[in-house]
Amino acid sequence: MAEHIHMIGIGGVGMSAIATVLLEMGHKVSGSDLKDSETLRLLQQQGARVYVGHAAPHVMGADLVVYSSAIPKTNPEVLAAERQGVPILHRSEMLARLLNKDLGIAVAGAHGKTTITGMIAHILSSLGLDPTVLAGGQMQNECIHARWGQGDYVVAEADESDGSFLRYYPHIAVITSVEADHLENFGGRAGRLVASYRRFIANLKEGGALVICRQAYDVLHDAVEEIKDKVSVIVYGLDQETTHTLGDGVDGEERGYGLDGYQARNIELMGPTARFDVYYNETLLGECRISVPGVYNIENALAAIAVARFAGLEFSQIFRVLTGFHGAHRRFEWVGMGDGILVYDDYAHHPTEIQNTLQAAKVGFGRRLVAIFQPQRYSRTKLLMKEFGRSFKDADLVVITDIYAPPPETPLPGVTAERLAQLIGEDIGEERVMYIGDKQRIPDALQPILQTNDLVITMGAGDVWQVAHAVAERIQQRDVQGM
């Protein structure tokens, strides 16, 4: 592997994880990003040479250049590398070099990738397997986001959104769910997305394992049948029956497990925590407690347990350390409280994620629920507008702010946050929905509305987290003023 690696877009969470691992491996790492950030400062402390802004001279002396998906081919550093004959790799190609050479654990799927990656990394690290870790998000409470380990396992997220996960040949693959998302990268057709998952499954190394949730197993059953003699197939899910439809003629037929499987039973949700019994087939392994909320995180924990047991760890060891995992950054993350009001922030930006997050908040906390949602991208909002409109039933009050649209996204006719607010109002009642386009106005607008015992949660993949912190500051001031 090259000695000096230059990374364009190094401040992105996936790129910074790779940079951290490369630095710990002893490589010279440089990189650039458009804006200064805490991530850049941390990389500098680790020994990287980091530039704010892109310029051709930054590539000088590099043996290899790595770029993120956000970097266009017209970037001056990409063009300079081409002129100088320096090899250029996409981020996923660099990750594939790390993942494919050892016992790779690749976590793919529409939802839960970062959390499951973090859970697996926490279990394996806590129990002495010393994995290399490349998660797609920061973790809370000092849980691992990126590290170079001396063990045989490499734990990483596998991004299905653009098909780049097809570069990975893992020993263990996790598929968390298959949903009609990121269809702009698949010609708007769910069938093409499903076909890419089938190819990903076929990439599994012989003797490895496919750990797959019940919903994904129903959708990908035929592909799973083709590889079950090559690898172990382990299905996980809740103790309930469901039917799954993706649209575009792609339906999941309801099937019995019929294979090795993990189930959660006797579930109890308790605020930001949960407990449940873990069954392997019909054998009770024991009780498990997790420090993250919602039934969706119970499913995430089942996936991590399945991977850890396939790696040779005992359930008695696994459940003891799993409770020490406190979640990924921006995944139901506590922000603050004041005047009896709780404030959380979440990355939920797909209708299913929104429904899961709101259900966890409603059931686990039993408070009046105020949801603040920032849609992401005009193209995504257009494709999922109707589904978004039906996703907020568990919220007592919904605030919709303008669409977060990073370049090269441009507005589309009829695709507006205001229209989304109208659709939500048609579903749950206009009196429960507010449209406030400028997110900076939201904290002040909510002050006369928020009540003691409310739970406020911001949701979205953009910068809506800033609103959560501003709301927390306002309610803390109310506490001081009320003293």
CATH level-four homologous superfamily name of the largest domain: Mur-like, catalytic domain
Helix content, binned percent:
25-40%
CATH topology of the largest domain: UDP-N-acetylmuramoyl-L-alanine:D-glutamate ligase
What is the CA-CA span between the terminal residues?
61 Å
Strand order of the largest sheet: 8-7-9-6-10-11-12-15-16-17
Give me the count of strands.
23
Low-confidence stretches: 241-257
CATH architecture name of the largest domain: 3-Layer(aba) Sandwich
Structural class: alpha/beta
Strand content: 15-25%
Overall radius of gyration: 22 Å
Task: Name the shape in a single word.
Answer: globular
Number of H/I helices: 15
pLDDT averaged over residues: 89
- How many domains? The number is 3
* CATH class annotation of the largest domain: Alpha Beta
Major sheet summary line: 10 strands, mixed
